[in-house]
Design brief:
With about 200 residues, the chain is an alpha/beta fold. It has nine helices and five strands; from the N terminus they run E-H-E-H-H-H-H-E-E-H-H-H-E-H.
Length: about 200
């Protein structure tokens, strides 16, 4: 299975890009969905998180209180490391299983943390959806109805744009229209097919 990793900062347009790949008949495995699956009620990971942080970490329906967990780990590197060591192997297993069950010519693994985690190990090729910080801020504050300052803080916690540009095999600029993005992806789709045939 030929795996193409796709990443980008917040508000870069990862969702729009993956939708275009899906329209072209390509399966998409979403690392964010895998991370949610890893902490589903009844999962080993959620049980351990509950044991460590107590009842406040669960919502009334026994699902994970993500807001509370973010608060706990935001300023506590020890707890953040503990959580990553627990969840990353679980998420990795779920991703691996989904990649294996893909039936399209190649498969997209979309992950905001593709380069920050070892998820890029799965990939034969990596794509960065790149956009200016001003576009990231404008899109995210509009989409999530949050302040520009909140978005800036999130951007600061992510791997720098410069580092992502160095690591990616292919960079797609997404500062223009959705139509431009679509044209770029169609070209890359053809390029990936050529790569597979080699």
């Amino acid at each position: 299975m030929f795996v193409v990793g796709l990443t980008g900062g917040i508000g870069s347009g990862k969702s729009a890009a993956t939708s275009i790949f899906e329209e072209l008949g390509i399966d998409v495995v979403d690392a964010d969905l895998a991370s949610r699956e890893a902490v589903m009620p009844g999962s080993n990971a959620l049980m351990k998180i509950h044991e460590r942080f107590g009842d406040d970490i669960l919502l009334e329906d026994k699902t994970l209180n993500r807001g509370k967990l973010r608060e706990i780990i935001f300023d506590n590197s020890e707890e953040k490391i503990w959580l990553e060591q627990l969840l990353h192997p679980e998420i990795r297993d779920i991703i691996q299983s989904k990649l294996k069950s893909s039936t399209s010519e190649y498969v997209i693994l979309v992950s905001p943390l593709l380069f920050e985690t070892d998820q890029y190990d799965f990939c034969d090729l990596t794509i960065l959806i790149d956009t200016s910080e001003s576009s990231q801020i404008a899109r995210t504050s509009k989409r999530d109805e949050v302040t520009e300052d909140s978005v800036k803080k999130i951007i600061q916690t992510q791997m720098s744009r410069e580092n992502k540009l160095k690591l990616a095999n292919i960079v797609i600029n997404n500062d223009n229209t959705l139509e431009d993005l679509k044209k770029n992806i169609e070209k890359i789709h053809k390029r990936i097919f050529d790569e597979i045939k080699k």
